[in-house]
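Entry:
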Amino acid sequence: MMDGALVLILLLYSRLAHLPKSRPGKWLVLSSVADIMVVSIFASLGILMEAIPLPVVLGVLIACGCYLAAVDFLKTGLLRKLPQGL
């Protein structure tokens, strides 16, 4: 559900700071929230696709958020151990 390119943009936005400490720009945040809301509504109502039950949609959103947090901690930990030139 969550666009892979969106996750990459959010994860790679800053190299060494965790995602909450290095907030992206206002427009990126607004467009990301709008994208997630529109796709979630379309999926749960069955617009342009087969309807997915709302608990499944919410579960996927929670799983994506947990994945984003886990990969963010992994990213910052690994980047701190690499030489600065990389």
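The chain has three helices and no strands.
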